[in-house]
Amino acid sequence: MSVVASICDGDASPQGEQADTSASALEGARVREGCALVTGASRGIGAAIACALAADGWPVAVNYRADEDAAASTVARIQDGEGRALAVRADVSEPGEIERLFEAAEGELGRVLVLVNNAGVRRDDLALSLSDEDWTHVIDTNLTAAFRATRYALRGMIRARFGRVINLASIVGPRANAGQANYAAAKAGLIAMTKTVAVEVARRGVTVNAIAPGLIDTDMTADLNGELLSAVPARRAGRPEDVAACARFLASEQAGYVTGTTLYVDGGLSA
Fold first, then answer.
1. What is the CB neighbour count within 10 angstroms for residue 18?
2. Closest-CA residue to 181 (of 243, 221, 134, 230)
3. Which residues form the catalytic set?
4. What's the rounded mean pLDDT across residues 20-25?
5. Exposure check for the chain: N or C terminus, fewer CB within 10 A?
6. Contact (Cβ atoms closer than 8 angstroms) between residue 143 and residue 120
């Protein structure tokens, strides 16, 4: 059985019977009121999270930067499962694009009540050779964009007295990985931001958490060498669906008392 309760699929209560106030009923009401927005959702972890949230009944805005065909494929998968989804093109590293992204998502699907900051890039090099451009591009995409999207989403979440912000960090944040000073700085910053914002909004019905994947089998990790895999106690790479299962839980009503934390999905690599 899924860790997430099924969305209210029972019959309406007979007249005179007390209204259903269970977690599943409340979650169904939240789904009807708003939507989920997943940045960088055309492929890999983002696509898996978008599909998992749709399976829980959330209408999902599938953000992408360049790969329109992949985004359309993610939307089609959701629609094939009788879910609602919308592909929205936006480069989240550009300041003005965040507002346009939210306006497009909310205009079609309702207020964003679940935000998954998943968009990320890598530009690896040793610190001695790392250019200012590569440093800035990674920080702007992986950290600053997540802050701007979170800041925009929080207003609506606080008004609704419900919200879920889920930031995709990495084990590279707290764990050194040579050649990734920019990526590590962004992901460590994302974990710190998660904790701070979680404390700021904890009394408003809004939770803010991070997920730190280890070696996950995606296009983004295809070029990493086998030495990292040999360091994983589970001796295998994870799947995007492993990460999506955690995001699905953190977005649920059942995770309402979980905030300011980081879930590691890494086969024991951080142990």
1. 6
2. 134
3. 183
4. 50
5. N
6. no
Token pair 């983002």: residue: 46
pLDDT, average across residues 78-97: 96
Band of residue 111 on the pLDDT scale cut at 50, 70, 90: very high
Which residue segments constitute the domains of the chain, with CATH numbers given? 23-215+240-263 (3.40.50.720)
Residues 6+ positions from 77 with CB-CB distance below 8 Å: 47, 51
Asked whether residue 232 carries a pLDDT value surpassing 90, the answer given is no
Of 141, 55, 53, residue with least CA distance to 105: 53
Residue 65 is predicted with a pLDDT of: 95
Write out pLDDT tens, residues 207-223.
999 999 999 988 766 66
Q: Contact 169/120 with Cβ under 8 angstroms?
A: no
What interhelical angle do 145-160 and 95-109 show, nearest 10? 40
Contacts of 155 (CB under 8 A, 6+ apart): none
Could you tell me the pTM of the whole model?
Answer: 0.86
Task: Give the whole-angstrom CA distance, residue 83 versus residue 243.
Answer: 20
Rounded alpha-carbon distances, angstroms, from residue 26 to 30, 151, 162, 204: 6, 25, 11, 16
Q: What are the two backbone dihedrals, phi and then psi, of residue 164, each rounded to the nearest 5 degrees?
A: -135, 120
Closest to 145 in 3D by CA, of 120, 110, 174:
120
Q: Are 256 and 207 in contact (CB under 8 A)?
A: yes
Written as six digits, the tokens of 254 are 């059942």
In whole angstroms, what is the distance from residue 221 CA to residue 194 CA?
24
